[in-house]
Amino acid sequence: MSDGLDGIGDVIAKRIVDYREKNGAFKSVEEIKNVSGIGDKIFANLKDHITVS
């Protein structure tokens, strides 16, 4: 069983963690597109699987 998301490998996962450490929690789902490597195509596949609070 996988605990990851389709299209997100180790490199992008590290970039997400680094982004959050630098900028704090995401304030909107769309903000994840500020992470290098997450463009419109990957975002379209992810947006229904992520939430922010």
From TrEMBL:
Extract the InterPro entries matched here. Competence_ComEA_HhH (IPR004509), Endo/Exo/Phosphatase_dom_1 (IPR051675), RuvA_2-like (IPR010994)
UniProt-listed Gene3D superfamilies: AF1531-like domain (1.10.150.280)
Pfam families registered for this protein in UniProt: HHH_3
Record's protein name = Helix-hairpin-helix domain-containing protein
Upper classification of the organism:
Bacteria, Bacillati, Bacillota, Clostridia, Eubacteriales
